Amino acid sequence: MKDKLKSRFLPSSYIQDCYSQLHNLIQGSKRVKEYTREFKRLLIKYDIQGPRDQTIVPYLEGLNPKYSNVVEL
Hints:
- The protein has helices at 2-9, 14-23, 32-45, 52-62, 65-72.
- The protein is mainly alpha-helical.
- It is elongated.
- It starts with a helix and ends with a helix.
């Protein structure tokens, strides 16, 4: 049912726009906790489901380098 509603009422570029917004999210001056909260909010809002290792990549790319380097270690 959810898929049928999405296909009928959402624009065809919706999924692409969702991933674009997720990949363009950056921490900037936000605290890590705020950035993480916003990242999770986008995952839920756009119903992005996938293996954890696929969602960690855009998360790390948006983190400030001083934090992402520590997380990658």
